[in-house]
C-alpha cells in the first residue's frame, strides 16, 4: 500500500472516520456494551434508544467534561448516516432494527487487539499452521502415492493411540493447552461472524447497484436481466460465492448442527475455563451463524423479487405506451380522412412491398347446422349408475400435514421434507407434495432453496409401484433463520 492509497483510506474509509471522531470512546463503548458483550447481531430501536438514554446519563454524570447534549434517537440516526450502524425494517414489524456495520466491527476488533493480553497461545497456532500446510500439500495433490502414504501415517498414529487407551494410558490436554485452544476458538469464531457481516454487506452493495440500474428508465428489460444474470454468475463462481455455498450446505446439515451444538456445550461446561469471563458470543455461535447465512440468502431473494417486480412494471408501462401510440395514430387518421391526396405529395412511404389480402381468397362461409329439438315426452329411466366416484374425490388435509411437521420439529431443530415423508409416508400422491410446498412458502420458518434439490419417493398403493419426484430443497425450522 502506497502513500496515495493510505491518503485515500484516511479520507473515505468509514473505520478510520470513526477513529478520527472526538466521540470515539463514547461510540465504541456503547457498541461493545450493547452488541459485543451480549453477543447479539441486531437490537430493535426501542430497546437501543432506552439503553442509550441511560448510557448518556451515566457518562454525563461520571464524566462532566464530556457533555453529550443530543437525545438518543438523534445519536442513533447520526451513526446510521455515518455508516457505523445499519438501520433496516423487517416484514414482521414496523419498528426498525439496528446492527453494526463491517466498518464498526473492524474498529471494535482493532480496539480489542490494543488491549494487552495476559496469555498469548503459540502452540495451538503452530499446530493450526501445520494442519493447513498438510491440507494444502496432501489434499491438493493428485499423486495417489502421496495421498496413500499420508493416510497410512495417520492410520498408524490412530492405531498407536488406540493401543495406549486400551492399555489404560489416556493422553489429555493440560489446563494451559485447554485455555490456549479456547482463546483461539473465541478469536476464530469472532472473526468468522465479522467476515460474514462483510459478505452480507458485499451482497447488499451489489443489490443497491442493481436497484440503481433498475431506476434508469432508458434501460431495457433485456439489458437489466442480462446484467443481473451475469452478476449472479460472477458471484456464485467467485471464491467468496463458492465458499459461502459450502458453508450454507454445512449449516443445512442437521448432523453437523447437532455435532456443533454438542461440542459447544461440552466446551462451555469445562472446569478449566470456568474462571474465564463468560462469552455469550460463543454460546450463540450456532444461532448467529444460521442467522448470518439466512440474511445473505434473504438479501439475494429480495434482489430476485425486485427484478421480477421491475420486469412486470416495465411490461405494463410498455403496454400502456403501445396503446397511447395506437390512439395517436387513430386521432391523426380521423383528422386526415377528408384530405385529398394529390399526385405531387406522398401520403405514406412503405419500405417493403405491400401484401394484398383479397376477399376472394377468403374461404366460403360454412353455415352452422341447426339443432333439431325432439318433441317426444321424456320418460323416467331405470338405469343403474355407480356413484362411488363422487365419494372418492382427492382431498389433502393441510392441518394434518402441518401437524406432521410440528411433530418432527419437536424432536429436531430443522428437518427436510424428505425426512418428514419418510416418517409420514405420502398417501395422496403429488398433490400432497404440492401442499407441503405451499406450507413452506407461507411459513415464516420454511425455506425453499432453489440451488439445491432432493429426490422424494412416493409409493402408489393402488398400482403398488414406487415413484420418485425431484424437488427443490424444502426445509422446515423450529425457529426463524
Strand content: 5-15%
Outline, from the CA principal axes? extended
Averaged pLDDT = 78
Side by side, the strands of the main sheet go 1-3-2
- Largest sheet: number of strands, sense, barrel closure: 3 strands, antiparallel
- How far do the termini sit from each other? 39 Å
**What order do the SSEs take from the amino end to the carboxyl end, as H and E?**
HHHEHHEEHHHHHHHHHHEHHEE
Please work out how many helical segments DSSP would assign: 17
Radius of gyration, Cα only, in angstroms? 34 Å
Strand segment tally = 6
- Helix/strand-derived class? mainly alpha
- The helical percent reads 55-70%
> What number of domains?
4
Q: Which stretches are low in confidence, meaning pLDDT under 50 for 5 or more residues running?
A: none
